[in-house]
Design a protein that fits this description.
The complex is a heterodimer of chains A (277) and B (139).
Chain A (H helix, E strand, L loop, with lengths): L1 H16 L1 H14 L8 H21 L3 H16 L4 H23 L3 H44 L4 E4 L2 E7 L4 H18 L3 E8 L5 H16 L3 E5 L3 H10 L7 E3 L2 H11 L8
Parallel strand pairs in A: 2-3, 3-4, 4-5
Antiparallel strand pairs in A: 1-2
Chain B lengths: L7 E10 L2 H18 L3 H22 L2 E9 L4 E8 L7 H4 L13 H8 L2 E7 L3 E9 L1
Helix pairs in contact in B: 1-2, 2-4
The chains are: A alpha/beta (277), B alpha+beta (139).
Amino acid sequence: MAKNDALLREVVSFFKGNAETIKKQWIKTMQARQLLMGMDVDQVKKEGERILNTYLECLETGDFTAAETYSKEYADRAIQSGIGSQQIIMDMLTLEGILNQLTYDEYGKEAEKWHQVMETWLPTSDTMFGFVSKAFVEGREKIAKQQQEALMELSTPVVRVWDKVLSVPLIGTLDSPRTQLLMEVLLQRIVDTQSRVVIVDISGIPGVDTLVANHLVRTVTATRLLGAECIVTGVSSQIAQTLVHLGVDLSGITTRASMSDGLAMAFEILNLRVVSK
Amino acid sequence: MKGFKQMEAKSIPSIEIASTEEIVAVRQKVRKLASDMGFGAVDQTRIATAVSELARNIYQYAGKGEVTISSLEGDRRGIQIVCEDSGPGIADIELAMTDGYSTVKSLGLGLPGARRLMDEFEIESEPGKGTRVTITKWL
């Protein structure tokens, strides 16, 4: 163990002594591979310095907290400035390549010693590479999740089309979390606006299976409990035939072919008439 | 059925069902194949809806399973979909095929509805082993 500690110290001070060479070589290689697009020279220098310092800290202490912190920060920066996965991966691999060459130049003549030196620094580099990749993938996943959530709210708009008339144009797939959100938003809006008619338009939904039908029935029932009337519009001829075959009973639901028919009916319920000037 | 043996089937790779996203994907794939084969808009919707019901059953009751879509090319052309899982199975198939019967407070129309939407419907199930439903629609 004592011998390994001594070797570790030797390797660390060897790398530290060559830090300037390593950084220069790193920038040169990355530029030659055209991997530093979107970064100016200062940023490149800083990034190279950060990577090397973090790596040396981990190697010296055997503690990867610094690598974890750095990876997360770097991934955030990279994702924000649009740096791709290729560069993130090449960053670490390039450093590894340079250290490899440096070690070979210094110790290559004694095979046994060279092997021991490699064993000393390479696993740390691999582990740090793992942290960086993981952080990058997680960062991307986080963004995908945020977008999904944003889309979910976007896709359940409740629009007030007239005094006491709300409209909900549904688009895409009605999966359960979205339906739940729709129900909450809709019921709250009915209360807030004291609406009496809700038009649910399903022309943007590609298919109505029994789950979607069940959601619709529940939405209509809940709306009625609040004293509002619910009209379902946009039932295409294909969907109508499919629903009949499925055996779904929508006789308790008021339906109209188009949104405009639905609006006309809403006016009727409210005792309103549209007249030309 | 005459000519049944000479029938060739072209399958696209099976689709694993393990989340609701894959139900959407399988619905889109089956609709695309049905449309490519020349099924009309109403039949496309029927087939996609039937598959949606069965894929949802896989997800709901077994957690995961597989859907295989194939086009039958022979004397008679058609589309065939096999939905199978290694889930809990169905103890009483006749009861499960009854309109309005559900163990999970759904409408209870999935299986009987899928049968009505398709031309052929075959179900095999063994409690503890799993379920396989094969549905076919002829052009």
